[in-house]
Write a structure and sequence with these properties.
With 179 residues, the chain is an alpha+beta fold. It has helices spanning 43-54, 91-100, 123-130, 173-178, and strands at 17-19, 24-28, 31-38, 64-67, 70-76, 79-85, 104-108, 113-119, 143-148, 151-159, 163-169. It has four helices and eleven strands; from the N terminus they run βββαβββαββαβββα. Strands 1-2-8-11-10-9 form a six-stranded antiparallel beta sheet. Strands 4-5-6-3-7 form a five-stranded antiparallel beta sheet. A hairpin with a 3-residue loop joins β10 (151-159) and β11 (163-169). The chain is globular and about 50 Å long.
Length: 179
């Protein structure tokens, strides 16, 4: 039997953590991600299905909604990022497809992204040097698309002024971490 081991985007067997005086950076490795797109004129039906099956409403522009371990984040009109702790390959994708049927398109994105959680009181000062997002105006659950080191990234506010998640292309994890 072939035994393989998953590696993190930074190439380790366990998530990388770096601690400074007032900042910690943690590589997040235990996340399933899928992108959900509403089919034409089906957003209302899709919202109803999410309420029924997941106790979640589709979030509005630049917002997130939560229920249990499931998080739904707005990406762009009629498109959301669904996030859940990693349990099994393709489990989240199958669960979403089963419950949205023909009203949405679902694409697994779990291995396409690298995720870094930044935690500490100096997060806003660091992020304002890396990107053009108004970090001070972000509330918990807000999401913003931006460029960091010429890479298209997402910044998510997990706790105002203290905790943020940066999502970027997995292929550039080292560059993003270095920044």
């Amino acid at each position: 039997m072939d035994s393989t081991q998953q590696i993190t985007p930074l190439g380790g067997n366990t998530p990388y953590r770096f601690n400074f005086e007032s900042l910690s950076i943690l590589e997040v490795f235990n996340c399933s991600l899928v992108v959900l797109c509403s089919r034409k004129n089906c957003e209302t039906k899709l919202n109803d299905l999410f309420k029924k099956h997941f106790n979640l409403e589709l979030p509005s522009v630049a917002k997130s909604s939560y229920s249990g371990n499931l998080t739904l984040r707005w990406l762009r009109p009629n498109t959301w990022l669904v996030e859940e702790p990693y349990y099994e390959v393709d489990m989240l994708e199958k669960k979403i497809k089963k419950n949205v049927g023909i009203f949405g398109s679902v694409v697994n994105q779990s291995d396409a992204w690298c995720l870094f959680d930044l935690n500490g009181p100096c997060c806003p000062k660091i992020l304002e040097r890396l990107c053009n997002v108004d970090i001070d105006s972000m509330a918990e659950g807000d999401i913003s698309s931006t460029k960091i080191e010429h890479l298209s990234c997402l910044i998510i506010c997990k706790k105002e002024q203290v905790e943020y998640r940066i999502m970027g292309p997995r292929s550039a994890a080292g560059s993003l971490y270095h920044a």
